[in-house]
Amino acid sequence: MKVEIWSDVMCPFCYIGKRRFEQALAGFAQQEDIEVEWKSFQLNPNMVTNPAISIDQYLAEVKGFTLDHAKQLNNHVTQMAAEVGLTYNFDRSVVANSFNAHRYSHLAKKQGKGIEAEEQLFRAYFTDGKNIDDLDTLVELGTAIGLDATEVRKTLESNAFADEVKRDIAEAQQLGIQGVPFFVMNNKYGVSGAQAVPVFEQTLQKAYTEWQQENPKPKLEIIEGESCGPDGDC
């Protein structure tokens, strides 16, 4: 059963939601039947990468908050993140447009490294204070999960995977997704936001039960005969 997750690298609730979903999935008895696919979403496609200002300053300017209020909001989210074992260092986070990071994640997904790429992008942005719009940073992240450095650099220097990112965003619009994280299970059930673990558990079970009914495993009528087993007995 497929679970599609729309998110943006710069969304603090997306990383928290990722952890809570993973906790639910870890306790799900049929987790081997679950396929997770990450999808691109941009909260602010017009954001200009600017390492010279802090996230607090950016939030205050964009939302019209005072700097103190912006810091209070980020401190609150930091506490939420800590509850699921994440460390947020907003004082180190770099204001950066996420489009290239999404292109990078599509390259990683094509090579079977999509989940690993999402995790390291979140960690790079929220914990390590790295510029996720910087080419050298993305090459470094790619090599850390086994991607070829030359291929990552060549891909990001071109316009590769731009259409894939835009298609994900268009699909989100068609589904009526207005915020992230957003989880779609079995193309039937949507979970919006970094919900509590039990919400993910209940929705996973409901979606899986229906998926299992729609996709029953084949039952074979077996005629026994002489054969050899994997333990070497013949």
UniProtKB/TrEMBL annotation:
Is the Isomerase keyword given for this protein?
yes
Recorded GO MF terms: isomerase activity; oxidoreductase activity
Which keywords appear in this protein's UniProt record, sorted alphabetically? Isomerase
Which CDD domains does the record cross-reference, listed alphabetically? DsbA_FrnE
Taken from the record, one Pfam family name reads DSBA
The record's annotation in Gene3D superfamilies points to: Glutaredoxin (3.40.30.10)
Q: Which PANTHER family match?
A: GLUTATHIONE S-TRANSFERASE KAPPA, THIOREDOXIN SUPERFAMILY PROTEIN
This chain's protein is named DsbA family dithiol-disulfide isomerase
The source organism is Mucilaginibacter gotjawali
